[in-house]
Design a protein that fits this description.
By secondary structure, this protein is mostly helical. The chain contains 6 helices and no strands. The longest helix is centred in the last third of the chain and has 43 residues.
């Protein structure tokens, strides 16, 4: 009973922290998107949450990985990583693949998210170039996080617990597949509209 209560408290704390970041990201994104269409407000809410996760969660993870290891570290972020480490053991100790991807994610994806937020708010011409680049980076990061372990038979992934498998591994990671996929589709549609509009204008002046 005590062990179950401890697991429940740890999981609850991790989910609460994630929910807090989601709430903060959505509030900031919706505030920045005042007066804009629903799609842009939704994109800004996601991007603010995305940037917060990269800088506030994954950044400290990279730091802790280089100064020691997660399994022996203390603090709020270390506790969150330890909880996620129950689903994917590679997060508990220095795994070169995970740490390499997280460095790229924090530095490149975090920066691109900030640039894209600015591009949407200021209606910059390079908005969809940055959006496509960021989404491809996010999808690549998701693939390279799991495919090496899948090819070895998933020795580090806990697939026996519904919480660790369906919530931690499937749900949390599929969000970074679904939303970048939707944003890629949005860019495709918008670029197609621009192309046809440009062609129409060109024909008028011929």
């Amino acid at each position: 009973m005590g062990a179950r209560g401890e697991v429940g408290a740890a999981a609850g704390g991790a989910l609460l922290l994630c929910a807090s970041l989601l709430g903060a990201g959505c509030a900031l994104g919706l505030s920045l998107g005042r007066g804009r269409g629903a799609r842009d407000r939704g994109a800004l809410a996601w991007l603010c949450y995305d940037a917060l996760v990269h800088f506030a969660l994954e950044g400290p993870f990279v730091y802790l990985s280089f100064t020691g290891n997660i399994a022996e570290s203390d603090g709020l972020i270390a506790s969150l990583c330890k909880e996620y480490g129950k689903a994917d053991a590679r997060w508990l100790n220095f795994d070169p693949t995970i740490v390499s991807l997280e460095i790229l994610t924090v530095v490149l994806d975090g920066f691109l998210a900030l640039v894209l937020i600015y591009a949407i708010v200021k209606e910059k011409y390079y908005r969809h170039f940055i959006q496509i680049t960021l989404c491809v980076c996010e999808l690549y990061g998701g693939w390279m996080t799991f495919s090496p372990d899948w090819l070895m038979g998933s020795p580090n992934l806990n697939t026996n617990s519904w919480l660790y498998f369906w919530v931690y591994l499937v749900f949390f990671n599929s969000v970074w597949v679904l939303i970048p996929g939707l944003l890629l589709w949005q860019s495709w549609v918008e670029l197609k509209k621009m192309y046809h509009k440009g062609n129409s204008l060109g024909k008028k002046f011929q």
